[in-house]
Amino acid sequence: FWIVLYFLFIYNESDLNLDYKLLENLLISILSISALYAWIEYFFLIQPENYNQGVKLRSHGFFSEPSYAGLAYYAAALSLLCKYFLYKKNNWSLLFFFYFFFTGILTLSLHIVTFFVSLFIIMFFIFNNLNFKSLKIPLFIILLLIFIFSSLILINNEFIKIFSEHVLLRLNIFDKDTNSLSQLAWLRGFEQMVFSIKKTYIFGFGLGSTGEYYFPSYYGDKLNYWGLFNLTLKDGFSLFFRLVIEIGIFFTLVFLVYLYFRVKNFFNIFKFNKIELENYFFLFIFSLTVIIGSLIKEPNYARSSLCVALFIIGTMPLKRKYER
Questions:
Q1: Which of 73-82, 112-121, 276-285, 302-311 has the lowest mean pLDDT?
Q2: ∠ CA(31), CA(171), CA(185), 5° rounding?
Q3: Do 196 and 205 contact (CB within 8 A), yes or no?
Q4: In angstroms, rounded to a whole number, what is the distance separating the alpha carbons of residues 251 and 266?
Q5: Which of 282, 297, 281 is nearest to 235 (CA)?
Q6: How many CB atoms lie within 10 A of CB 220?
Q7: On the chain, which terminus has fewer CB atoms closer than 10 Å, C or N?
């Protein structure tokens, strides 16, 4: 069902006459309230001295898990930051960037990686479509982010210690002795994907096959030692891993190529007439970031964030060609 639904999103590409500015304001408003609740969780419900001392002791706002929340907050932050520098300098956009970015940090979500990966992908398309004077924009963004982290260290050194230990522990994917459950589950998903490529070569094991076949797994054995062998076994921990396992490397690459040209087309239009895209810009960058984050570490086809992101990117009325 979900594959058919997403297929319709991708190939429909018709103007649904949506009020994209209204959708942008609605999304920012809902995420703002959710972020406020995340800070209430931190200061009053969990309390700083207990933060991250247990599985459930992290802020997540209105989301079911901190990881999902972090992806949404970082996606909103990146969209607002890009819009601030590429359109008129709206101070509210900058203010909300800081608000969402700091809330993303609060969740301790590894989707801070998604934030930077998405930033560099957007920079790549900007460089390929705009003159190199625009280099000052991403350079300023990077310097700004360095300043943010430096300021945060000065404000609360204890929280930075919690953040760095939590994130750096999970970023070292080459540490075979790790006891991080999320890292073990992600690496086990990678092993499952590699096994599927070796066995099926191109077309995968079929929809719903993730976790339904035997494959040798060093990291699975470690999870089994902790009594958590089934942890994310049937979703692969990553949408990219799951797509390769179930539909194969060929059709996964077809999807990625489609996404590449969709984004390329967006920035081609932006090059010649960015005003035309102003009402679409926030939602497009937000959706792209959510998709990138899902490919990295959010595997569920039916997740609402992925559904909304594919709906927005697939149905946004972008012209296939744009004349000067």
A1: 302-311
A2: 85
A3: yes
A4: 23
A5: 297
A6: 22
A7: C
Q: How far is CA 26 from CA 9, 29, 96, 160, 216, in A?
A: 21, 5, 14, 32, 46
Tell me the per-residue pLDDT of 67-82, one tens digit each, with 9 for 90 and over. 999 999 999 999 998 8
- HSE of 265, CA atoms in CB hemisphere, 13 A: 17
Say if CB 86 and CB 125 are below 8 A apart: no
DSSP codes joined into one string, 228-287? -TTTTTTT-SSHHHHHHHHHHHHHHHHHHHHHHHHHHHHHHHHHH-GGGGHHHHHHHHHH
Closest CA to 318 of 263, 259, 272, 275: 263
How confident is the model over 113-163, as pLDDT tens digits? Answer: 999 999 989 988 887 755 555 555 665 666 666 666 656 655 566 777 787
How far is it, in rounded angstroms, from Cα 71 to Cα 239? Answer: 14
d(CA 223, CA 142): 37
Q: How far is CA 232 from CA 186, 237, 243, in A?
A: 8, 6, 15
CB environment 278-315: b (16+ within 10 A), e (fewer): bebbbbbbbbbbbbbbbbbbbbbbebebbbbbbbbbbb
Upper half-sphere CA count for residue 52 (Cβ side, 13 Å):
16
